[in-house]
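Task: complex structure prediction.
Instruction: return structure tokens for all chains below.
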Amino acid sequence: VAKLQRVRERRRLGLALLEGPRVLEAAVAGGARVLEVYGLSDDRISESLARRGNAEWIPVVPAVLEMIAPTDHPRGPVGVLETPPSEVPEGDLLWLHVGDPGNAGTLVRAAAAFGLGVASAPNAADLWSPKTIRAGAGAHFATTIATDVRSLPEPHGTIATVVSGGIDSRRLAEVLDPDRPWAVLVGAEPAGLPEQVIRAADVQVTIRLGEAVESLNAGVAGSIVAYELAGWRTADEASASRD
Amino acid sequence: VAKLQRVRERRRLGLALLEGPRVLEAAVAGGARVLEVYGLSDDRISESLARRGNAEWIPVVPAVLEMIAPTDHPRGPVGVLETPPSEVPEGDLLWLHVGDPGNAGTLVRAAAAFGLGVASAPNAADLWSPKTIRAGAGAHFATTIATDVRSLPEPHGTIATVVSGGIDSRRLAEVLDPDRPWAVLVGAEPAGLPEQVIRAADVQVTIRLGEAVESLNAGVAGSIVAYELAGWRTADEASASRD
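Output:
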């Protein structure tokens, strides 16, 4: 179980670690396949969570919990998750090229909140790392996730987030075809998306800023574009239902 | 210098730590008072940064850098900043009640990017902690910051961000008086703002989400409201200049 802190082992085994009651609760509630739950023997809450999720409950001493948990001072529980098969979402999605696991998790959370799916590029942060899952705060089990996505098949259109020169994020509605699903490409900091990725995208979008600061945190920038996309879809559906 | 990793010492001395060339560069460019810069003796870039900022250049051995730097494997430099006097921004601002230093720094960055100032509540994360400054990515030196703010004097109006029941963030323009500066109150996760703070605010705002996820990361939520506020001000100025 301790080995699952390494990305190679997670991928080889198709497993990931869930730490803490909040994430474990979200996984069980979302119908995820939790195989085992390790917790302190007097941790009744974790034990009942394990039973609800049809996972094996394995009571351990604090030293064992410390060895298998991704953080330094775990209060338990630690769950072992069978990661769901990678599946490209059919609708709008965030396509993450970010390397920071905290930002990646924040973006999974925002995507799920705004009704979008998530895909990660080959060199991006592992969406199933403990840090990413923690920052996702349970959202991993409330959306569709694809990993290691090199290219998106039709019919997805692509929107590249760029620091300058793109269409104003507030005017996305004017250029997007509502009949296509759209993928928002979010780049890593500070370099942003690779130049050829930006050029290959159907649309470039820029969040207008003042002059004091050059760019936003990648998690914030991607979330704002997801927010605009969700608002546009909602307005579009509302106007369609009036027709 | 190592003591400045503790909030009490920072407040007692009115000093803070700047780690890394990017933040130090932003501080010097923003005209901040950098008193000393510690770096490895062959670090010419840091030395020239120190001279540009009129700071004392203090070459040190790696073991010393490791002792005074806030992170574990510093590549230098570490600067000592005289924190600017706490000053309540005159215009729109984010009033942070968040405890997580990373989220607080992300919000300082977003506030500066959207032309807003920043204030922190008494129990919030220290805006001058190394983690907050790092997440701010230089934005601390591009906006006005007030710390330990218990109440905001007139003429500021207050907008509380709430998970449900507030006015839709996309419709803020319909309720805000453009002649007042507005302060956006951002709460800590997972509890949000205290109930009496929410009730006392002039406006409650909610970012509409789908049903899959209950809330956004506090840094993302506050940034989206800042984004809406900045867009509203720009549209308001544009329409005023047409009049």
